[in-house]
Amino acid sequence: MARPRTSEPPRRRDDPPLPGLTVAQLSYLVAVASSSTFSEAAASVGVSTSALSQGLAELERRLGIELFERVGRRQVLRADAAEVLAYARRVVADTRDLARWAADARTGRTGRLRVGMIDAAAVEHFPGSLRAFRRANPDVELHLVVGPSGELLEALRSGDLDLAVVVEPSAPDPSLELEALLDEPLVVVAPEGRTVGPAAEWGPWVLFPSGSHTRDVIERRLRAVGAPVHVVAESHQPEVLREMARLGVGWTVLPEAQVISRSRRRSPAKDRGPVLTTRRLVVARRRGRIEQPAADRFVRSLLG
Predict the structure, then answer these.
(1) Which domains, from first to last, does the chain contain?
(2) For the whole model, what pTM was predicted?
């Protein structure tokens, strides 16, 4: 566990009184920010919608500021409440860490580790590291979640994951610590039967969903080389994108390791084009987290 501070700065007479917030109220705020409706948020934290609304109203009262505004028939988080939300996410994540650490200490567990990985990391790049970690740490309960980078980072920020192997975000996040693992080539794949010619002739495209980290990397590079970017289909699954390209739906861009892996299972990929760009895979952890030896060992296994 992280070493506690040895002293706290004394409060001055002119400091404002502490607002007396509760972790439950802050967790309600985080749930609302992560959900599409109040009812969905209430279900995610196991309370009724009315209890959620009352808790948020009490949070506003104790802070002395309005966190929500009405847009049509919906209550939405105000833009200037971002600082409160960031604080709430830190507190909720740290509290979950502390609760899990205490539960492990009470039950005598030597460790549990919740790891998120994008599919390419889990299947292509680090399966050997996963196997080696399990063999070397049989007393650690390893829970692996495979998903898109954005979802994994959200779970990491909220305290649902201890670390995540993801595509490096395009914008820095001060709440996270990132350590580079590898740079992965992304290659152009033409529809079956098509020849990969000049970039101006590429497309239409079947790509990763808009807003994903890999999609951002791909689109920036396509525009830089003069390729038209007209997207006709999207999927988080590289196998789905590869199959849509094979069926002639459109061109795609995939991690080289997954194109090669597919080629080995079938015939060589004659439709594989040039390396378009690279994406960087990183291991992400929350800044200021409670120390966790199992997570440290896992990161070392990834770094080799």
Answers:
(1) 23-88 (1.10.10.10), 94-181+282-303 (3.40.190.10), 183-279 (3.40.190.290)
(2) 0.69
